[in-house]
Structure to design on (341 residues):
């Protein structure tokens, strides 16, 4: 029996925790409607990639600049609670570069943006340590950034960044060549990554951060940094394999696949293992399966789409970087549906 994983759900638990994805979607639509009216008086450099993970501008006739911006969300609240900021910079790098590679770009640089009530050198040193580790894993430079002391705006700390990359215009991975029968290759996540923490923190609030029912302290599990997929995807793109789509699975879960093409559907026949932390959140929060799959990555951090004939080779290449990567399903002709067999 096929189970529809992206059916419209109320997100009761997430909304009760303080986040409404429906409101966010309408807010973005209102913002984009105004931005679309911008008239610079010059021909646009924008490469149309509606709904994709990163934006691309034409630098010249051959080269595009890919860019995006993102932060670590309320995972920072947990870092503050534990007084541990040394890995949060890795998350900031990951959330940005993992989006850039979805258009086939090579990330080259990022600038960070820190908002705080009052600057603190020890905390900034810890954040900087994570940014350095993340930058080295992703192969990017950090030529600058900004720290703003805005106590009237934030009571604690917030970290975000903006990243740029380079991509040949004729090599942009748009997702427009995806067709029914193509294989889905899934790459494991390291846990929650940097999404769904508002809900996770509320559900787990009564547990001590040294609770070890998951095999190690809960605080360690929740602060596990987001996996950076840049080097694996870079090698895949440099191979002779036909890469037709790349998807970073973040907030909105498996619905992220629909950012590539709404003319096809996606069916999971052999999903990756779900890390125990998701089961704990679901059990303690009484959260329905559909909402869990719409809020969290559920162990699936990234998806590559290749023709069926390239599936084994792609899975082998990716598993060398991220053990456990494997074929998890296929593209269907059921447009807009994400299902599990």
């Amino acid at each position: 029996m096929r189970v529809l994983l992206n059916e419209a759900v109320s997100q009761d638990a997430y909304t009760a925790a303080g986040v409404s994805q429906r409101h966010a979607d309408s807010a973005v639509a209102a913002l984009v409607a105004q931005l679309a009216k911008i008239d610079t008086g010059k021909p646009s450099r924008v490469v149309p990639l509606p709904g994709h993970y990163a934006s691309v501008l034409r630098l010249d006739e051959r080269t595009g600049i890919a860019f995006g911006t993102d932060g670590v969300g309320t995972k920072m609240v947990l870092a503050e609670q534990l007084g541990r900021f040394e890995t949060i910079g890795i998350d900031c790098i990951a959330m940005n570069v993992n989006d850039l590679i979805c258009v086939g770009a090579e990330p080259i640089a990022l600038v960070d943006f820190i908002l705080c009530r009052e600057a603190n050198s020890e905390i900034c040193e810890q954040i900087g340590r994570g940014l350095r580790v993340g930058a080295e894993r992703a192969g990017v430079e950090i030529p600058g950034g900004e720290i703003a002391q805005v106590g009237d705006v934030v009571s604690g700390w917030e970290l975000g960044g903006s990243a740029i990359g380079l991509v040949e215009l004729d090599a942009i991975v748009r997702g427009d060549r995806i067709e029914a029968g193509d294989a889905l290759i899934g790459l494991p996540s390291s846990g929650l990554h940097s999404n769904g923490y508002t809900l996770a923190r509320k559900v787990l609030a009564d547990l001590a951060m040294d609770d070890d029912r998951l095999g190690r302290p809960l605080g360690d599990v929740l602060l596990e940094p987001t996996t950076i997929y840049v080097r694996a995807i870079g090698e895949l793109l440099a191979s002779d394999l036909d890469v037709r789509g790349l998807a970073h699975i973040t907030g909105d879960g498996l619905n992220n696949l629909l950012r590539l093409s709404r003319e096809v559907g996606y069916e999971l026949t052999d999903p990756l293992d779900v890390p125990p932390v998701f089961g704990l959140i679901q059990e303690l929060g009484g959260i329905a399966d559909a909402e869990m799959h719409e809020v969290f990555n559920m162990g699936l951090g990234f998806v590559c789409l290749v023709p069926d004939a390239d599936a084994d080779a792609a899975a082998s290449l990716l598993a060398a970087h991220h053990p456990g990567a494997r074929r998890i399903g296929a593209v269907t002709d059921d447009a807009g549906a994400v299902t599990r067999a």
Q: What stands out?
A: The chain has eleven helices and twelve strands. The chain has two domains: 44-171, 175-340. The first strand starts at residue 3 and ends at 4. The two ends are 6 Å apart (CA to CA).
